[in-house]
Specification:
334 residues, alpha+beta, Nucleoside Triphosphate Pyrophosphohydrolase, 8 helices
Length: 334
């Protein structure tokens, strides 16, 4: 009897290596948040509302740590420059200081020409800023979490994205944010954080996990009275506080500036109404076992409605687990 050779399946494809990127939660003098609406044809976050930001670029931002370099997942100058450059390219808002330490004020025509030249790599971004008499305001960026795209073979792109908060000074003269002409975005708008949250829950905008988590987090501080300075003080105090959660989990001892999150569904938690629970404590495969981590205590709960799944709201993990257990107990009695 002859044996037929067995056909072997295709080898499993390795997930993409995360590309270094950076984004800014840019807050106006009245603490409104800037979001950009991505085009439908975008290769990542299509049609979603996102913070201004994008990939690091060695020509503009300096040497980028390699895939096996631990610094690839640590905040540094390359990430800060990328965040400021991409914000300028995508919105026209230049976060650079003049010799007096004030935000550099340039005409709309000069900014438009600069956006085009930098986008087309005709001049390195720091050089262009220097030609205008300024320096990128990297010291004004407040690190607030890093996000690594979950490892999945069907994903064409993954990112290791450093997130920052930038508080525009109260004396800032409103330079209307403008999109990039439809290259990557169709709109660039400031609005109240509470409005962005409401629109997400009403399915009027799409928010992916990093934006949903961070906008929900910001929403805790920009409510109530219009004392914008006090709101900012509460936010900055929170970002600098350890422990970060309500339990003694190890991730609560990781400062917000150093937290790394790779969102995924919380195992074993199911709701009959279709709600999905997203955990944010896992740092992703690149950093497992390194001591890095995210936020064990808080999760995002996304509901399924007649118009699809909403962006989700933030809840304490212990409350969600208790609710899921209560639902299972009620079902068992039926």
């Amino acid at each position: 009897m002859s044996l037929k050779p067995q056909k072997l399946g295709k080898p499993l494809k390795a997930p993409p290596v995360p590309s270094p990127s950076a984004s800014i939660m840019l807050l106006s003098p009245t603490n409104q948040l800037l979001l950009l609406h991505r085009v439908k044809t975008s290769s990542s976050f299509a049609s979603a509302h996102v913070f201004p930001g994008g990939n690091c670029h060695a020509f503009h931002d300096g040497p980028i740590p390699g895939p096996n370099d631990p610094k690839r997942h640590i905040d540094g100058d390359v990430y800060k420059l990328a965040a400021i450059r991409e914000t300028f390219e995508e919105s026209g808002i230049l976060l650079a200081l003049d010799r007096a330490g004030k935000l550099l004020s340039l005409s709309a025509e000069v900014r438009a020409a600069g956006r085009k030249a930098v986008h087309e790599n005709k001049v390195a971004f720091p050089d262009w800023v220097r030609q205008q008499g300024g320096v990128p305001d990297t010291s004004g960026l407040v690190p607030f979490t890093r996000w690594i795209t979950p490892a999945a073979t069907h994903l064409k792109k993954r990112f290791t994205a450093q997130m920052y908060v930038y508080l525009l000074p109260f004396e800032w003269v409103n330079e209307a944010a403008t999109h990039d002409g439809g290259l990557e975005h169709t709109a660039a708008d400031f609005d109240d954080v509470s409005t962005w949250i409401r629109k997400s829950l009403q399915n009027k905008i799409i928010l992916f996990s990093p934006q949903a988590y961070l906008i929900n987090m910001l929403g805790q501080f920009f409510t109530g009275d219009k004392d914008y300075g006090a709101q900012r003080e509460r936010l900055l105090e929170f970002i600098g506080t350890v422990p970060t959660g309500s339990t003694d989990h190890a991730t609560a001892l990781i400062p917000w500036a150093d937290k790394v999150m790779s969102p995924s569904p919380l195992p074993g938690v199911q709701f009959g109404d279709g709600r999905v629970v997203i955990r944010n404590d896992d740092p992703g495969p690149e950093l497992r076992g390194s001591g890095r981590g995210g936020d064990w205590d808080r999760v995002i709960v996304s509901s399924l409605g007649p118009d699809g799944r909403d962006g989700g709201k933030m809840m304490w993990r212990k409350e969600v687990l208790a609710a899921a257990a209560a639902e299972r107990g009620a079902e068992a009695k039926l």
